[in-house]
Amino acid sequence: MSLPPPAWRGLVDDAAVFPPGDAPLPDALTAHVAHREEWWADLVGSFVVTDTAVPDVSTPLALAVVVTGGAGAIPGAVRLAERGGHELAGIEVALRDLDDLAGNARRVAASAAACDLDPERVHVELPPVPDTGSWLRAADAVAEAGHRLKFRTGGLEAHLFPSVDELAGWIDAALDRETPFKCTAGLHNAVRHDNADGFTHHGFLNVLLATLYAFDGSARDEVVALLEQRDADVLRGVAGDVDLARGRRWFTSFGSCSVSEPLDDLLALGLLEKP
What we know:
Elements: E1 12-14, H1 25-35, E2 44-50, E3 62-66, H2 74-83, E4 87-94, H3 101-114, E5 122-125, H4 132-144, E6 148-152, H5 164-176, E7 181-184, E8 193-194, E9 200-201, H6 204-215, H7 220-228, H8 232-240, H9 244-247, E10 251-256, H10 260-268
Parallel strand pairs: 1-2, 1-10, 2-3, 3-4, 4-5, 5-6, 6-7, 7-10
Antiparallel strand pairs: 8-9
Helix pairs in contact: 3-4, 5-6, 5-7, 6-7
């Protein structure tokens, strides 16, 4: 079986059960198992599910478990995955204590350490807050624990889509701390565009190229310009001039309720070819 090139392996975490797809869990599981039989199987990473739904995952899988409670709910999520015979590919936790984000991140770290979790399997989602210093202190705490960051790049409401300046700042913050990150929501397509839902969506190729350019020391305005770029031909040309796999060291994956849309875009751009 032919494999996707390194730049695309494990890029798309299968979040079919999450909005806006909202696939019923049995259907999502059947589709995920079928994905594993395709020539592009290695494009797909873990199966993303909430901790409350883990007991209903009947097939042992590599799971990324989204913790629906706070830091104290991490041990329970770990136990549920273990009981189901699943490989715990990752734990994802959103910080909720807006008055003390850094303290919240440290509580996550303590709870994960008590479970003897591999720090790199813990992704901490930092919410956007008016106090940039508070956000950066929380990023420091995540980095100190050896955890990874999680950036929300879309959703069902306009405020869930960060601006290109905001996203560029998050990428810089991750790179400054040598902390890999994943993204979630809104990145179904490769190129930035206005979507039928009325929102402007970031493109995963934009994010990957912006990350690579930021890592190589490009100025902020160049990084922002890449995030803003809507011309697929321009992005394809830039992608052809760089080693995209180097960017994956930092931008590790993104959760998507659709696996087919990212796949179709990569094929259409000529960045992935059928064997």
